[in-house]
Design brief:
This protein is mainly alpha-helical. It has a domain of 27 residues. The radius of gyration is 11 Å and the shape is flat. It starts with a helix and ends with a helix.
């Protein structure tokens, strides 16, 4: 699931500032995963 979300973010940011938008998207995923799973996936997302 997280991989699919990251792929979507990559697709959207090809035209713009890719790394900056990926950082923002990853940050949102970290906060979402933290709420849903008690932080269990935080390390996985932030390793990207």
């Amino acid at each position: 699931m997280l991989i699919l979300l990251l792929r979507r973010i990559e697709g959207k940011t090809e035209n713009g500032n890719r790394s900056q938008e990926l950082m923002v998207g990853a940050g949102r995923l970290v906060h979402g995963a933290k709420k849903e799973n008690g932080g269990s996936r935080q390390e996985t997302v932030s390793s990207y």
